[in-house]
Design brief:
Number of helices: 9
Strand order of the largest sheet: 2-3-1-4-7-6-5
Number of strands: 7
Order of helices and strands: HEHEHHHEEHEHEEHH
Shape: globular
Distance between the termini: 32 Å
Helix content: 25-40%
Radius of gyration: 19 Å
Number of domains: 2
Strand content: 5-15%
Largest sheet: 7 strands, mixed
Length: 256
């Protein structure tokens, strides 16, 4: 990442979204610093929970062996197989054998849904997550993830749609929490629109984030455009000034 752009974003972010958390970015690599490797899981461990440490400034690197949940492995591109009876797990389960999550009405609907969700293979052995201010010159993030409450999301949502003639510059597809921050935005990188993804609606992942927080994942090219547009967008209006003041007062109260 270019140092000048990195600093320009921080300056604008602090101006228009005061006190708000910096985003987390990720990229893939075939090399990793051992001191940043996530510890191997002892049983199930949600990837979203691990990212809480990244939000606080710790760099974390994962490979297929250090991600503690099936969904995380799949949606980070390290595994393509679906667990046995997944169509029942995501729906109503199998009495006496498997408890269902009841996120889809029937196994048949799950099977059709899976056809629309085909994660790409990871382009590297490791996926590395870093907070924006921890990014170094050689880091090339593919996606930036904002963990944010409604007022900040309203600003990000509107900014993502600012230079788009169509009304769907942001999408909110159904899926696991890790799908909404990794796989779906990666898929958007392959499209012309490169839409942002609103997520963290996954009920199973909700306990891993504060109750007021959703995610907003932005493909890198779209993020660059958003930053370039900040100074001529609604962010300089009286309307946003009111929202900005509320963001500052609310988050300052929380941090204090």
């Amino acid at each position: 990442m270019e140092t000048a752009f990195k600093e320009r974003f921080i300056q604008k972010w602090n101006k228009y979204f005061p006190v708000a958390d910096l985003p987390v970015g990720f990229y893939y690599s075939d090399a990793a610093d051992p001191k940043f490797m996530a510890r191997p899981p002892k049983g199930h461990r949600c990837l979203i929970g691990d990212l809480a440490k990244v939000r606080k400034g710790k760099n974390i690197c994962f490979d297929i062996n250090s991600i503690g949940c099936f969904g995380g492995k799949r949606f980070c591109g390290f595994a393509d197989k679906i667990s046995p009876n997944f169509e029942y797990f995501l729906s109503y389960g199998i009495p006496g054998q498997l408890e269902g999550e009841r996120y889809k009405k029937s196994p048949e609907i799950v099977k059709e849904f899976i056809k629309h969700q085909q994660p790409a293979k990871a382009p590297g052995k490791y996926i590395i997550f870093k907070r924006w201010d921890r990014m170094e010159k050689g880091d090339l993030p593919l996606v930036l993830i904002f963990f944010a409450p409604p007022d900040i999301l309203s600003g990000l949502f509107t900014l993502a749609n600012f230079d788009s003639p169509q009304p769907h510059g942001v999408i909110a597809p159904f899926g696991a929490g890790c799908a909404s921050i990794v796989d779906y935005p990666l898929q958007e990188l392959k499209t012309v629109e490169q839409r942002a993804v609103l997520g963290m609606f996954d009920v199973s992942a909700r306990p891993c984030v504060p109750s007021s927080v959703l995610t907003f994942a932005v493909p890198w090219p779209r993020l660059v455009r958003m930053v370039e547009n900040m100074g001529e967008s609604f962010l300089i209006t009286k309307s946003w000034k009111k929202v900005r003041a509320r963001i500052k007062n609310r988050l300052s109260g929380i941090s204090g």
